[in-house]
Amino acid sequence: MRIATWNVNSIRVRLDKILDWITQKNIDVIAMQEIKAPDDKFPYNNFKDLGYNVESFGEVGFNGVAIASKFPMENIKKGFALDARAQKRMISCEINSIKIINVYIPNGKQVGTGDYYYKLDYLSKLKEYLISLMKDTKQIILMGDLNVALSDLDVYNSSQMSDQIGFTHSEKNALQDILNIGFFDVCREFHKDKKLFSFWDYRANSFLRNKGMRVDYILTTKEIFEKVVLCDIDEKERAKPGASDHAPVYAKVNINTGGVS
């Protein structure tokens, strides 16, 4: 099963690029964030024409998440009951008895503001939610834009980024707390000592200067991680004209999917 996560930064603006990429990579399940479209404007038929089932949870101009899957999706849940602001940031389902969670963590905007503490609260409550899920299942995949760079290898310059949004000690500790309950950062496990970025700001020629951050993740429980055979970031997608400011992250999991890839 080939899975991917991608902050697409507007599903309608980048639809052709997304469809081309998932076809080229033969992606079975893709989690998309920042779709920036209400459900009645989501391009469901374009995905269905390629053989995908689709569920979205979106709004006009902001946030929004969606999952497209070649497999049937069961127990679909939209929203996060513990979200203090009830924003459209989480959608989940079950695919082949695996719990798939797609989440778009708040950016936090500026350290020390209400938005920053909302972000920390969201990460803390996400950990609580995952702990409760793990009482019932050990097969969980969490994908999304987590808006936190975890280590010095995940930012272009750790001294410059120190105490900047997305790289404060509190944010990093909150994400590490999630890993500590039994999740694996799959891309980092496959690239132990390599600088990895998944986001490059549109400003200041950040991509050309490789001033990036790794904020997009595939996290899995041990039971799933043991079946992962590859994980990478497709930086070439970020280089294309009109690209999202994020690159897709993808992985292959060797599981029985009833004859589908």
TrEMBL record:
The active site is at residues 104, 145, 246. CDD domains: ExoIII-like_AP-endo. Probably binds two magnesium or manganese ions per subunit. GO terms for biological process: DNA repair. Mg(2+) binds at residues 7, 34, 145, 147, 245-246. Residues 4-246 form the Endonuclease/exonuclease/phosphatase domain. The record marks 246 as: Interaction with DNA substrate. Keywords: Hydrolase, Magnesium, Manganese, Metal-binding. Its cofactor is Mg(2+); Mn(2+). InterPro entries: AP_endonuc_1, Endo/exonu/phosph_ase_sf, Endo/exonuclease/phosphatase, ExoIII-like. One of its GO terms (molecular function) is metal ion binding. The record marks 147 as: Transition state stabilizer. PANTHER family: EXODEOXYRIBONUCLEASE III. Belongs to the DNA repair enzymes AP/ExoA family. This is Exodeoxyribonuclease III. It comes from Desulfurella multipotens.
